[in-house]
UniProtKB/TrEMBL annotation:
CDD domains: REC_Rcp-like. It comes from the Bacteria. This is Response regulator. It comes from Lichenifustis flavocetrariae. The keyword Electron transport does not apply. Residues 8-134 form the Response regulatory domain. The modification 4-aspartylphosphate is found at residue 67. PANTHER family: RESPONSE REGULATOR RCP1 (PTHR44520:SF2), RESPONSE REGULATOR RCP1-RELATED (PTHR44520). Keywords: Phosphoprotein. InterPro entries: CheY-like_superfamily (IPR011006), Sig_transdc_resp-reg_receiver (IPR001789), TCS_response_regulator (IPR052893). Coiled coil: none annotated. GO terms for biological process: phosphorelay signal transduction system.
Length: 147
C-alpha cells in the first residue's frame, strides 16, 4: 500500500523495550511512516504545539499512539489536552496500552479517543495490529490536515 513520504506516527511510550518492539513491528508491517517517540505526554504536547505554531519546522503527524501509564503526564491527561486544544482536536489518537480494564476503555472513548487497543502478547499479533492501523488510517481513512 503506497504511503505519502511525510507521514509521522507520534508515539508516547516511556518503556524502552516497548519502543524497540513497536519499531520492529512497524518495520515488519512494511511501514513507511516516520516514528517519533516521546517519554511522556508533556513532551508529546510540546512537540505538537510547536508543530502547529511553526509548521515549516516540523512534519505534521498522521496519528498518535498513547500509552496509558507514563510519568509526568499519562495517556488520559494527554488525550484531554489534545481534545481541549482546538488546533489539535481533529488529530486521530489511539490508546495503545496493556490495560484491558472495561472502565478504562469506556473512559478513553468518552474523552475522545479514536480507538483503544490492548497491546498484544506476541510479536506477530502486534505486527497485525500495526498493519491494521496503517491499512485503515493510511489507506481507507481520510486524515485531517493538522499542521
Amino acid at each position: 500500500m503506497p504511503h505519502p513520504p511525510d507521514l509521522n506516527v507520534l508515539i508516547a511510550e516511556d518503556n524502552p523495550f516497548d519502543r524497540t518492539i513497536l519499531r520492529r513491528a512497524f518495520a515488519a508491517a512494511g511501514s513507511h511512516a516516520t516514528l517519533r517517540f516521546f517519554d511522556n505526554g508533556e513532551d508529546l504536547l510540546v512537540f505538537l504545539r510547536a508543530s502547529v505554531d511553526e509548521p515549516a519546522k516540523k512534519q505534521g503527524p498522521a496519528f498518535v499512539l498513547l500509552d496509558m501509564h507514563m510519568p509526568r503526564m499519562n495517556g488520559k491527561e494527554t488525550l484531554q489536552h489534545i481534545r481541549r486544544d482546538g488546533r489539535l482536536k481533529p488529530l486521530p489518537v489511539m490508546i495503545l496500552t496493556t490495560s484491558d480494564n472495561e472502565p478504562h476503555v469506556h473512559e478513553m472513548y468518552e474523552l475522545g479517543a479514536n480507538s483503544y487497543l490492548v497491546k498484544p502478547n506476541n510479536f506477530d499479533e502486534l505486527v497485525a495490529t500495526v498493519s491494521g492501523l496503517e491499512g485503515f488510517w493510511f489507506g481507507a481513512a481520510r486524515l485531517p490536515k493538522i499542521i
